[in-house]
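User: I'm putting together notes for a lab meeting next week and I want to include a structural view of one of the chains we've been expressing. I don't have a solved structure, so I'd like a prediction I can at least talk through. The sequence is below, exactly as it appears in our construct file.
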Amino acid sequence: MALKRMDNVGIVVEDLETTIDFFSELGLELEGRATIEGKWAGRITGLGDQHVEIAMMRTPDGQNRLELSRFVRPPVISDHRNAPVNSLGYLRAMFTVDDIDETLEKLHTRGAQLVGEVVQYKEVYRLCYIRGPEGLLIGLAQELS
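Assistant: Thanks for the context. Below is the predicted structure for the 145-residue chain, given as structure tokens.
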């Protein structure tokens, strides 16, 4: 057995349009949208008869995808959006950007809030965490070399 690739990371949201706009502003491209519904899909997720609206966002290099999902049925049962970075489970996605300051300025107009501060790690990276739409935790990294 050999792993071939990672296809995508999924994030469940309430406001699909706002989240698509936010990640588009960050630089991801909307690859497509679909509605997934029925018992066949619920057999995969274990949720039974489900109805989900999804948007697939692609990174500019075409190598990675972010699947944004809005559940119509069944309803969302828990909310981890404002959990701190040391919480258990999947928590954030990290993106490398050309200019962290410019990116923060652009995303601030979409409601992004800096979590702590922008810090420099040696002569390698500038890093920060932001809260995006719906409190999603997103890491930003700027390579310095």
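A couple of points you could mention at the meeting. The beta strands are 9-12, 29-38, 50-58, 65-73, 92-97, 113-114, 119-121, 125-131, 137-143. The chain has a mean pLDDT of 92.

User: Perfect, that's what I needed.
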